[in-house]
Amino acid sequence: MMEMHTTRNLLLLTGCLLTITAQAQIGSSAYQVLLNTLYKKTVPLIGVTEAYRQTDLIFLDTREKREYDVSHLPNARWVGYTDFDLGRLADLPKSARIVTYCSVGVRSEKVGEKLLVAGYTNVRNLNGSLFEWVNQGFPVVDNRAQPTSRVHAYSRLWGVWLRRGDKIYD
């Protein structure tokens, strides 16, 4: 238990330090440095441009429902994080081409790990996740499937990495 808190605090401190140094010049390279420190790389990554161009991917949004309702990738399925349940995917074949995402890719990596353990064979984590998707100018939709510029930025600390869109906080 102590190790988990120490790891979490270290990750938050790393994020804070990178945020402070990147505030004046936030770019995708600084964001990628942050992601490289956060990802365990247990789930293969797919870039946002590559994912956007492919038409046969099933996008799974692993954020909380309130985040998903603000905006999400077009046609993405909400599966949640804290209440993630494999039963929500019972209709998907184990060979489906799945891409998990969240705000920056940490929660989605953990859900991706669960999918791999459950026997799904073609799972990828969206590199940079929703923030990078929006930063690259790709579209998002609201809970009525209408295009929107609103993006749930998770928290003010993490929201600094979202360079486009209208940031929404709870």
Please give a structural write-up.
This protein is of the alpha/beta class. The chain contains seven helices and nine strands; from the N terminus they run H-H-E-H-E-H-E-E-H-E-H-E-E-E-H-E. It has helices at residues 2-22, 28-38, 48-53, 65-70, 106-117, 129-135, 156-159; strands at 45-46, 58-61, 77-78, 98-101, 123-126, 140-141, 147-148, 150-152, 166-168. The protein has a five-stranded parallel β-sheet with strand order 1-5-4-2-3. Strand 4 (98-101), helix 5 and strand 5 form a beta-alpha-beta unit. Helix 1 (2-22) runs antiparallel to helix 2. The longest helix is centred in the N-terminal third of the chain and has 21 residues, at 2-22. The two termini are 28 Å apart.
Features:
170 residues; two-stranded antiparallel ribbon; alpha/beta; five-stranded parallel beta sheet; 39% helix
In short:
This protein is an alpha/beta fold and 170 residues long.
Structural class: alpha/beta
Give the percentage of residues in beta strands: 15-25%
What are the low-pLDDT stretches, counting only 5+ consecutive residues below 50? 20-26
Question: What's the order of the H and E elements?
Answer: HHEHEHEEHEHEEEHE
Distance between the termini: 28 Å
Describe the main β-sheet briefly. 5 strands, parallel
